[in-house]
Amino acid sequence: MYKKLYSILLISIIIGLSSACSNHASPYPEREPTKVLRPADLTAEELAYHEKYMQYTVDLALANKAIFSAIIVHNNGTIVCEGINMGFKMKDNTQHAEIVVMQNCSKLYSIQNYANYSLYTTGESCVMCQAAIMWNYFSKVIYGTSIKTLYCEKCMGQVLIDSNVINAYGVGLSDDYAPVQIYGDILANVTNTKVFLDYCTNKKVWTVTPNCTAPSSSSSSNSGSTITMNVLINALIALVAIIGFSSLL
Ligand SMILES: [Zn+2]
């Protein structure tokens, strides 16, 4: 009797373990998203500095009848490059404003390391753009409207990964990699109302039906406890299934 129970328990744990491990095959340690600095985290002087350049970025978008626009600013305060989304114009969906402005700048000035520059963008960078910003070693990226707002509140199609999640994985780019400092919601009261409109009711080709829930407080728990919980849950499920199966024999 006990031997049978012991065997069932052992098989359950093995199944649970193998199932949990197969879900975590990545060799890279899971990383916490990097901190995003919001207006409340900044001094009045810092906020005014970033709002000035964000206002310039907003004006660039509005003047070009665009919604996504980006500029690159040297640490000495000089605006060196500008760009707007060229996806429709170039029939190339990868021509996001951030990609356009970085390509413009690299062609003009042959810059491959933007450690002395900041990139301002009306909307939070997508996975593609954030990774490109990291590959170019920018020191700062500053955005107005978040991906969450674009998707959940404005029904705009987005890849649902926040830029600070991607940002955490730049450590693999070089041994002395310094994460990009992300500033969010800068002049968001303007970008949320004057640049990005309500596409839920004013439907565009990018309108989607959002599926958003309130963030879970445990969503950022570490991988260790998640794996342990998965092992226990899977073992329990397997145990119940095996006992049920055994009772049929
Ligand atoms: Zn993008």
UniProtKB/TrEMBL annotation:
Residues crossing the lipid bilayer are: 227-248
Q: Does the keyword Signal apply?
A: yes
Query: SUPFAM superfamilies of this UniProt entry?
Result: Cytidine deaminase-like
Record bears the keyword Chaperone: no
* UniProt-recorded name of the protein: CMP/dCMP-type deaminase domain-containing protein
Q: Look up the signal peptide feature and give its range.
A: 1-20
Q: Which PANTHER family match?
A: CMP_DCMP DEAMINASE, ZINC-BINDING DOMAIN-CONTAINING PROTEIN, CYTOSINE DEAMINASE FAMILY MEMBER
Q: Which Gene3D superfamilies match?
A: Cytidine Deaminase, domain 2
CMP/dCMP-type deaminase domain span: 48-163
Q: A GO BP term, please?
A: tRNA wobble adenosine to inosine editing
User: Which keywords has UniProt assigned to this entry?
Assistant: Membrane, Signal, Transmembrane, Transmembrane helix
InterPro entries referenced in this protein's UniProt entry, alphabetically:
CMP_dCMP_dom, Cytidine_deaminase-like
Q: Which GO terms describe its molecular function?
A: tRNA-specific adenosine-34 deaminase activity
